[in-house]
Amino acid sequence: MDEQQHIARCIETIDTYRGGYFNDRPWLREAFGSVSRAHFVPERVWWPERDEDGLFPLLDRTTEPERWLDAVYTPRIALITQIEDGKISTQDGPARSNAFTSSISCAAVVVQMLHHLDPQPGDNVLEIGTGTGYNAALLAARTGASHLTTVEIDPVTAERARTALHARGVSAPTVVVADGEDGYPARAPYDRLISTACVQEIPPAWLEQMRPGGTILTPIATPFGDDALALLVADGHGHARGRLVAAVSFMRVRSQRERRPWRELGWPRLPDFELAAGPDGQNVRQR
Ligand SMILES: C[S@@+](CC[C@H](N)C(=O)[O-])C[C@H]1O[C@@H](n2cnc3c(N)ncnc32)[C@H](O)[C@@H]1O
Fold this sequence. Notes:
The longest helix has 13 residues, at 3-15. This protein has helices spanning 3-15, 26-34, 37-40, 65-72, 107-117, 134-143, 155-167, 204-208, and strands at residues 44-46, 58-60, 79-83, 100-104, 125-128, 148-152, 174-177, 190-195, 210-221, 227-234, 240-248, 273-278, 281-286. The protein folds into two domains: 3-104, no CATH class; 112-259, Vaccinia Virus protein VP39 (Rossmann fold). The mean pLDDT is 96. The chain is an alpha/beta fold.
């Protein structure tokens, strides 16, 4: 199967998921169909599930091109590009550590997030977590590359993404090596902010750098096991409000890796929920 056939099959599978993320976003279907995900994935990556020896297997494009390409277009699989901030190398082979610090997010989640973000042509967009540059390429296809700023904390990762974007003629986005929790004030205010790394608390700088009515989409840690995608509308004066639109699982932004008490983060406590069960099913609500 060639790459175009893989893309077509991936779109077909994502179309069967509840939510129909492509349906009312023709630009997204077109961008997904024309931007090569394979171009942005390194030659050697780790599969995110342990094998029978308890190791994360390595996929190598050179030795197993078919298997590698199949993995790239498996809709619900993120491929791991960095472990322990680069202390472990793909040259070391299969990995035992699950301290994943960079990846290409799974295709289905990339599409789901861009659906919710709903960027418009000409929007000034800030992405936190450039990673491979794939999501940035999809964003640039919609907003125009010169309207996109993408921030990556890891210099090696950022440089690789910059090169990959340039090789595809996407040379205009501003790729910045910095801590994305500070946003990027030089290009503010933003119409859309998308983070592809998870926070426990929304960084104040993000709120301050939004235009009134601007949209923030970010994974946020929850007390329920999964992370949630928070879709917020900013007022342009340091506040934002919105909904949790989906359950996801993401790696943390670097300085929010250490778990904080939920009560400090504004979450209800478990005793704040009431569960009623009966023959008709059960119901959980906040008291
Ligand atoms: C899931 S990956 C991003 C996937 C990426 N959007 C793509 O299309 O390949 C998360 C990225 O966030 C980066 N990251 C973590 N903390 C960060 C921070 N504080 N500022 C900027 N980037 C950060 C990681 O280095 C990693 O590359």
